[in-house]
Amino acid sequence: MASDAKMLIRADGFRSGTVGGGCLEAEVTTEALAAIATGKPGLVRHTLNADIAGDLGLSCGGTVELFVEPVLGGAPAAVLYHGVADAIAGRRWAGVVTALDWERGPRKAACIDDAALVVGEWRLGTATAAALSAASAVSAATVDESAGLFAEPIARMPRLVIFGAGHVGCEIARAAAATDFHVVVADDREEFANPDRLPSADEIQVADLRQTLEALTLDQDDYVIACTRGHAMDALVVERTAASPARYVGMLGSRRKREVIWKALAAAGVPRPALERVKVPIGEDIGADTPAEIGIAVMAELIRVRRGAVGRGG
Q1: From the DSSP assignment, how many helices (H) and strands (E) are in the chain?
Q2: pLDDT tens per residue across span 108-160
Q3: Are 249 and 243 in contact (CB under 8 A)?
Q4: How far apart are the C-alpha atoms of 22 and 2, rounded to whole Å?
Q5: Cis ω on the peptide bond leading into residue 281 (within 30° of 0)?
């Protein structure tokens, strides 16, 4: 199973992130400190049998392949790093390619939209261009040893649009931000939808929700939740988003609430197949009661959908 786990290690031993824990990270730290000292990257493989994997605190055996590289200084590298950071913040796809051999100096390139950002004396030949294109189109990092390239996709972060900044909406936003969703919260009440109450939200939209819905364009990387303060507005959110390409549409409420609203929406012309795919009640069935518990239950469901896992009962 491919995993693009990352860890940042400083020369003083500080670590951020994880690539598995246990003794594996101790070995990776040694490799990373060596890369800092030499200024050169390295491709590291660790083969684990079941017994060693257990000793390392890992759940299975197999081969762990890691690409270790020093963080570069200088203006060209800063431009590349900032460009990739901006792409992540702006939910744009990007691809990064790094040469495995730095004998002639660091060589790194990023493809963001139609722009190429390059570090080092590197002419972007056919193989590199193909690797950049491939990195933008796949979901896992790959190593092409024949071309001497490490290609890394920068996937677009999934977006969760929460209609309603009440107590439950705030808790869903908090849990979503912690699990790498781009969080948008929309409400028509500034006293509810503000940075003090929603510090983890990437975007806060304060406007009439009809205007917000009219301006909203959804695609398959989007998730929508209706948890406003009233049935009528929840119904409007569902009406406008049920037939959209969004990967997930859900509404906070009971099965009885769903029956009442679905009857009205069907009479208004919303296609039955579109309504049937809207999740109500939302969240995994863990007996959640408080807003914080509901937030966790909802995010458990969204993570399951995002990862393509099958929940209990199918």
Answers
A1: 10, 14
A2: 999 888 788 999 977 766 666 666 666 655 567 888 888 888 988 888 889 99
A3: no
A4: 19
A5: yes
Quick one: pLDDT at residue 305?
96
Domains and CATH numbers, the chain: 7-68 (no CATH), 75-154 (no CATH), 159-307 (3.40.50.720)
Q: Are 33 and 11 in contact (CB under 8 A)?
A: yes
**Is beta strand 248-251 parallel, antiparallel or unpaired with respect to 222-226?**
parallel
Taking a C-beta distance cutoff of 8 angstroms, is the pair 146, 130 a contact?
Answer: no
Instruction: For residue 133, give both structure tokens.
Output: 């294109």
Would you give the end-to-end CA distance of the chain in angstroms? Answer: 22
Q: Quote the tokens at residue 204.
A: 């806060």
Q: Which token pair is 260?
A: 């009442």
What pTM does this model have?
A: 0.80
pLDDT in tens, 82-115: 999 999 888 888 889 999 999 989 999 998 887 8
DSSP state string for 17-78: E-SS-HHHHHHHHHHHHHHHHHT--EEEEEEE-HHHHHHTT-SS-EEEEEEE-PPP-SHHHH
Task: Find the length of the chain.
Answer: 314
Cβ atoms of 198 and 164 closer than 8 Å: no
Are the beta carbons of 226 and 163 closer than 8 angstroms?
Answer: yes
For residue 42 the two structure tokens come to 């390295």
Beta pairing, strands 149-154 & 94-99: antiparallel
